[in-house]
Amino acid sequence: MTDDTATETDAVTPARPSDTASVARRLEAILLILDEPQSLVSLAAAVAAPVPAVRQAIEGLVADYDGETGGPRRGFELREVGGGWRLYVREEYDDVVGEFVNTQAPSRLSQAALETLAVIAYKQPVTRGQVASIRAVNVDSVVRTLLARGLITEVFTDPDTGAIHYGTTDQLLVNLGINSLDELPHISPLLDDGADGFDGEVLR
Hints:
Elements: H1 2-12, H2 20-31, H3 40-47, H4 51-65, E1 76-81, E2 84-89, H5 94-104, H6 111-123, E3 126-127, H7 128-135, H8 140-148, E4 152-157, E5 164-168, H9 170-176, H10 195-203
Antiparallel strand pairs: 1-2, 3-5, 4-5
């Protein structure tokens, strides 16, 4: 009976390969979808590998992307920011990516983008998670759109959590035809229900 129990347990929790190449492939899959830097511990949990193996795999990926292993230098890089790791476009290609995104973006912002932009404008600096909590929807793609349009920017990264805080740019002021955010209207008169509570949350 003991042998049967051990066999069933092994079948339920199969071990994942922990060699560097296997860990690196799993890391790449996770890194491709990250919007905020993740610590080594978080990445290790995500790919079910020991932290030392993840650290070694990260070092290998950094060298690979930087062209130090005999391959070409990539247009993106794996960078540590605020104690976490994330893929970034290399600085020299920012203009190319920005131009491409702008040509793909519609001339008008969607309702979702406008609502997200309003939350950021009134509550900045604010994280993506805080915006999502207020709007009760995922805002990842909308935030990327606003960044590409130059309406918001990354203000700073929390050194403890790795969360990026966003704020509006001067381009937004130009588009709105105002000199400062102080000229934005108070939001409470624009809300029919729950105005006092929302106004206290957003404008404090």
